[in-house]
Design goal:
Layout lengths: L3 H13 L2 H4 L5 E6 L4 E4 L1 H7 L3 H7 L6 E3 L8 H6 L5 E10 L4 E13 L5 E10 L1 H18 L9 H17 L6 E8 L2 H8 L1 H18 L5 E6 L2 E6 L4 H17 L3 E2 L2 E2 L4 E8 L6 H17 L5 E4 L4 E3 H7 L4
Parallel strand pairs: 12-13
Antiparallel strand pairs: 1-2, 1-6, 3-4, 4-5, 5-6, 7-9, 7-12, 8-9, 10-11, 13-14
Helix pairs in contact: 8-9, 9-10
Length: 328
Amino acid sequence: MENQSVLDSRLIEKFEAHRDFTRVFLDAFVLINKEQKVLKFNAAFCQIIELRSIDIRRIDNLKEMLSTTIPGSEKSAIEQILESNAPTRIDEVPAVNLSKRKNLTLIISSYPYYENDGKMLGACLLLRDVTAETNLQSKYKDKTIQSITDPLTGLYTRRYFEEQIDKEIERCKNNNIIPKLSVIMFDLDKFKSVNDTYGHQAGDFVLAETARILKTQSRRSDVLGRYGGEELLVLIFDTSERGAAVAAEKFRQAIQNNEYVFNGTRIPVTTSVGVTLIKGVDDTKESAVKRADECLYQAKESGRNVVIVDFGQGRIPVQTFLGTNPEV
């Protein structure tokens, strides 16, 4: 087996054939062998690692200067790159500058070098520090999310919810598609008595816990919103009348069966539900929400903890609808 220093010399020789290109690199580069020994690097690499050239040569190995991860993998990003048989690029790599214990986000690209027999000698890595850009994007993303979500429940705001109805109707209109958008409205039963009996903190807990239940029971494509007070809503896209009815009843049962325990005290919670379906591009969010609200009002008047639906044939209990429309 050939001496590692001989193999490293061959790697450097192959790299030097491209040396003129490296002089115009704005990104950091580092040439490493398969054991991640550092053979060549530029000033930009020193800036990312935050070490002097003399210190980098003393430490000698990239693994002792930079830690990288791939979410869901036990191997580091650089280990995976060195196992690749082709030039590779991995975006937004979580990394740690080990000398400063500083978290980084990097774009890492590699160009591998091989022996004539195809055995890898090592690779030239290009490192771009995008930590600042990523943090800025996250900051703006967080602000955007905060502007359209309710801070207590984490559900979308009424304004965002209504915008989604308008967008779906407009999308269907532009594409000559018949909309199948379900609007489900929830109102927690006797919520005022929860606040009066257990306190407002308990009421906040009930709302937040109900939101959690809705999230666990919904599809990723569903839009969940807090419409105001104890009223919550769910939009279900591309669904049938039966699908909307079944989903609403599933939500109601999940809330009824959940153990709401606040400071060691169990709080009984149920909800009344109104359901409608937008089935035409001439429908509006105002009329759809009004139908759902009227169904909700009837559910309250009918004794609470029930689902009332209105799909164009009048307001009826969900069990009656499902019983008379088994194939819908």
